[in-house]
User: Which sequence fits this backbone?
Protein backbone atom coordinates (compact mmCIF):
# COMPACT_ATOMS: atom_id res chain seq x y z
CA UNK A 1 0.00 0.00 0.00
CA UNK A 2 2.77 2.49 0.80
CA UNK A 3 4.04 2.19 -2.77
CA UNK A 4 1.06 4.29 -3.86
CA UNK A 5 2.44 7.10 -1.72
CA UNK A 6 6.17 6.39 -1.99
CA UNK A 7 6.03 5.99 -5.75
CA UNK A 8 4.55 9.41 -6.49
CA UNK A 9 6.34 11.89 -8.71
CA UNK A 10 8.86 13.86 -6.60
CA UNK A 11 7.75 17.06 -8.33
CA UNK A 12 4.42 16.79 -6.45
CA UNK A 13 6.11 17.23 -3.07
CA UNK A 14 8.81 19.67 -4.19
CA UNK A 15 8.17 23.14 -2.77
CA UNK A 16 7.64 26.33 -4.75
CA UNK A 17 7.56 29.87 -3.42
CA UNK A 18 5.13 32.32 -5.00
CA UNK A 19 5.08 36.05 -4.37
CA UNK A 20 1.70 37.76 -4.06
CA UNK A 21 -0.18 40.51 -2.28
CA UNK A 22 -2.41 39.81 0.70
CA UNK A 23 -4.59 42.82 1.43
CA UNK A 24 -2.05 45.16 -0.14
CA UNK A 25 0.96 43.61 1.62
CA UNK A 26 3.61 41.94 -0.55
CA UNK A 27 4.46 38.50 0.77
CA UNK A 28 5.63 35.08 -0.36
CA UNK A 29 4.13 31.69 0.34
CA UNK A 30 5.99 28.38 0.11
CA UNK A 31 3.91 25.27 -0.52
CA UNK A 32 4.37 21.88 -2.10
CA UNK A 33 3.49 21.81 -5.81
CA UNK A 34 0.54 19.47 -5.21
CA UNK A 35 -1.07 22.12 -3.01
CA UNK A 36 -0.39 24.88 -5.55
CA UNK A 37 -2.11 22.71 -8.17
CA UNK A 38 -5.20 22.37 -5.97
CA UNK A 39 -5.24 26.09 -5.14
CA UNK A 40 -5.08 26.80 -8.87
CA UNK A 41 -8.09 24.51 -9.37
CA UNK A 42 -10.05 26.21 -6.58
CA UNK A 43 -9.32 29.66 -8.02
CA UNK A 44 -10.30 28.52 -11.51
CA UNK A 45 -13.57 27.09 -10.16
CA UNK A 46 -14.27 30.49 -8.56
CA UNK A 47 -13.35 32.31 -11.77
CA UNK A 48 -10.46 34.28 -10.22
CA UNK A 49 -6.67 34.14 -10.23
CA UNK A 50 -4.91 32.11 -7.55
CA UNK A 51 -3.51 35.24 -5.84
CA UNK A 52 -7.00 36.81 -5.85
CA UNK A 53 -8.50 33.67 -4.29
CA UNK A 54 -5.79 33.48 -1.62
CA UNK A 55 -6.19 37.17 -0.79
CA UNK A 56 -9.97 36.78 -0.55
CA UNK A 57 -9.59 33.77 1.72
CA UNK A 58 -7.10 35.63 3.91
CA UNK A 59 -9.50 38.61 4.22
CA UNK A 60 -12.39 36.35 5.18
CA UNK A 61 -10.30 34.51 7.77
CA UNK A 62 -9.23 37.86 9.25
CA UNK A 63 -12.89 38.90 9.53
CA UNK A 64 -14.00 35.57 10.95
CA UNK A 65 -11.17 34.53 13.28
CA UNK A 66 -8.46 37.18 13.23
CA UNK A 67 -4.91 36.71 11.96
CA UNK A 68 -4.20 32.99 11.43
CA UNK A 69 -1.19 31.63 13.30
CA UNK A 70 -0.03 29.67 10.26
CA UNK A 71 -1.65 30.75 7.00
CA UNK A 72 0.17 28.17 4.85
CA UNK A 73 -1.23 25.41 7.07
CA UNK A 74 -4.68 26.93 6.61
CA UNK A 75 -4.14 26.80 2.83
CA UNK A 76 -3.09 23.14 2.99
CA UNK A 77 -6.16 22.18 4.99
CA UNK A 78 -8.37 24.22 2.65
CA UNK A 79 -6.99 22.05 -0.17
CA UNK A 80 -7.92 18.92 1.80
CA UNK A 81 -11.46 20.24 2.27
CA UNK A 82 -11.68 20.92 -1.47
CA UNK A 83 -10.52 17.45 -2.55
CA UNK A 84 -12.82 15.82 0.01
CA UNK A 85 -15.88 17.53 -1.51
CA UNK A 86 -18.07 15.52 -3.86
CA UNK A 87 -17.51 16.61 -7.48
CA UNK A 88 -20.92 18.29 -7.65
CA UNK A 89 -20.00 20.59 -4.75
CA UNK A 90 -16.65 21.59 -6.28
CA UNK A 91 -18.27 24.35 -8.35
CA UNK A 92 -19.68 26.31 -5.40
CA UNK A 93 -18.15 29.47 -3.94
CA UNK A 94 -15.27 27.63 -2.29
CA UNK A 95 -13.52 30.72 -0.91
CA UNK A 96 -16.51 31.64 1.19
CA UNK A 97 -17.10 28.06 2.27
CA UNK A 98 -13.54 27.69 3.57
CA UNK A 99 -13.55 30.93 5.51
CA UNK A 100 -16.86 30.11 7.18
CA UNK A 101 -15.77 26.75 8.53
Assistant:
Amino acid sequence: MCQVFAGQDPDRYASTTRRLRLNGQSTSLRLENAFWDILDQIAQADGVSTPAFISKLHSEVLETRGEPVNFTSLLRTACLVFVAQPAADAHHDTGTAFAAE
Notes: The chain has one domain: 13-100.
